[in-house]
Amino acid sequence: MKRKGCSIILCLIVILFIAGVSFKVNRKEIEKSKIRSEMSLKEANTNSMAINVETSVGSGDYTKSTVPSTGSYKVNTDRSYCTIPGLSGEQKNIPMEYKDGKVYIGITDEGTKCYVWLDQQELLVDKIKDQVSSNGCPTYIETPLITTIEDTKSLLCKGIDDFGDTYYYRGAVTNNWVKLGKFYWRIIRINGNGSIRLIYSGIGKAETSGTDTQIGNSAYNNLNNNAQYVKYVYGSTNTDSTIKSVLDNWYNTNLKSAYGSIMDGEVGFCNDADISSTSYAGYQFFKPHDRIFGSTLKTATFICNTKADNLFTTSRGTEGNQKLTNPIGLITADEVSFAGGLGGSDNTSYYLYTGKVYWTMSPCYFMGSNNTAGMFIVKETGYLDHYYNVGNAYGVRPVINLKADTLFKTTSEVDKGTADNPYIVVI
Length: 427
Fold this sequence. Notes:
The chain has 427 residues and is mainly beta. The chain has two domains: 9-121; 125-409, no CATH class. The protein has six helices and 28 strands. It is elongated and about 85 Å long.
């Protein structure tokens, strides 16, 4: 296809969606830097819309607008095409993209007309909310009371986190699988801002047990003789913990280039290292210990204490400490409790059980007499346990958050989200 020697023009079209059975598109002409755009209705469909774009060669400024309709859209590449002067027929290999509420068309041929169909996408968060359980979930007033494991039911429960309503999976869940490229994950929960929190569970196939549910073993921190070594990033110099370096290296190698654009850096990861008022036999405890083990009422929470210190976010975060370069972390002991685990009880049936020991991000104690710092871990029996020295080597299961508008597909409409039919991330 011949192209004239001008820079690519990004044509931005405003589409007005009227909910129900029809669309109304106002036809108008915009003249700015020789770019002329027309909008016309091609098909009335509640799940699809089309626009007619006429361009002329130009450069410089272009009109910036956002699509006012709600929902998420993707260019239908099978149906969209352009007609280009001098070429016969419909040209379908034209770069087209819908992103952040804008439609972009990369074309430089004067007199070109493009017909772009946008398909409305159903977001995963909307699909998941329809599964909320009416009973069987922990009682949730200001804080939930989690006094037992959950090893039989498959539940989707509702709670509260720092950003709003959160929807979390609990128990013997089988329909929370996600495939991101070659990697398999389990959905922990939908965060309050709509983003999707996932925990790693295999490469090449969906793994439910064994070492393939983790990316390897590591110490949480090679240093353990100070209370600060329970932190994901510690000290006045913002030094990375050992496990953060492992996670960052894995993220940079496996996720950053291909999937970094769909990662949410706002909700972050709670490394609650606030000192509790509890001490015993030389142990100084952190607040996660009091919530999980220190009370007869197991008051786990999705709220992160002292967010300016403990909520690890990237520079995109509006809350938290913004100390992360990469949006990757670990699960918390509180999230394990919500998922069906419990301090002091085995559970080999809930979805976080792998038969292996792996780290959480929740600090437990510091003992000054022998200079040891410890974290919560999930044991090989699914037991949520504490008193584990940060210098020990245990399994590493990355946790990430995908943006709320991330698109998914399945290979079948039956048994969506299962290991055989996972939600597949569409890039």
